[in-house]
Amino acid sequence: MSLKNFSDLTEREVLAIAIASEEEDSRIYVGFAEELADRYPATSKVFQEMASEEDGHRRQLLELYQARFGPHLPAIRREDVKGFLNRRPSWLMKNLPLETIRNQAEAMEADSQRFYLKAAEQSQDVGVRRLLGDLALVEKSHGAKANALAEAILTESARDAEGKTAHRFFVLQYVQPGLAGLMDGSVSTLAPLFAAAFATQNNWSTLLVGLAASLGAGISMGFAEALSDDGSVTGRGAPLVRGLVCGLMTTLGGLGHTLPFLVPDSWPHAFWTAISIASAVVFVELWAIAYIRARYMDTPFLKAVAQIVLGGAIVLAVGVLIGGA
Residue 62: which CATH number? Predict the structure, then answer.
């Protein structure tokens, strides 16, 4: 489909696009409010007020349009104009962190203002330029109004409560799947890696086994996490994000003690050099897992160390015994 240049729009078309844009932005803010109602009720109220502001501006623009051009709006949307701003589809707004939604709202207002100002500078028509300048001022006032609403509604207690909710969401969305992946990648790949190492005593062969185990585990864990739930009931956030975090951390956990086997077999004592480095990496990985559990999962540090190190040692021993048999 051929898109129109902004400079080719009539004043009537520009005003019609502005009306449609205000209506769409109002719906987006309503969606934000509904999305945040359970997790962040105070911020949800801010977005409800912002939606009302956008709807009020839409009515003002519509009254101006009807007074000048009558009741019929031309069938034109911002997507029909080159360089016009496109909003993210509503289904991409689900399960977003609070800060992401706030940044998205700020970007919506700032981008609209910049677009109107740039379009006003390029326009040769005095009427269109004046209209675009007015719209830019309206968008700027939206940002100031949003800040005023936030100050009035987000009291200190509300901010504290939402801060705790945001921390919980961060743990559920990123820390928990990342920790599960790191634990699986660091521990589950130990047995096949060290079994291959002691069975072949060949670094290159061991490296290939480690890469296959790490990548395979990462793909498997990523899909398992993403398909476990969609986050709508548990509040664990977007499944795609959780799956990516879990998959990447699983792969990273396995690659950590796999990469030391890049030591060329031609080096003196190459096998034992790689084994020594890989063992040191395993030690660091297990302690890192214990620290994360203690930091975010309220597990006593020494208890976390005992559990993780013991489990890792057992899996490592199994791999060494099988490889040496």
Answer: 1.20.1260.10
Structural contact between residues 177 and 245, judged by C-beta atoms closer than 8 angstroms: yes
Query: What 3-state class would DSSP assign to 214?
Result: helix
- Judge if 106 and 186 occupy the same domain: no
Q: Which pLDDT tens digit goes with each residue over 150-209?
A: 555 555 665 565 566 666 677 777 788 888 888 888 888 888 888 888 888 899 998 999
Same domain, 145 and 289: no
Measured in residues, the chain has a length of: 325
Rounded Cα distance between 42 and 34, Å, is 12
Same domain, yes or no: 138 and 11: yes
Retrieve residue 199's tokens: 């069975």
State how far Cα 193 lies from the chain centre.
33
Q: Which residue has the tokens 């003002």?
A: 60
Query: Model-level pTM?
Result: 0.53
Determine the structural domain holding residue 136 and report its residue range.
Answer: 6-154
CA distance 193 to 261: 10
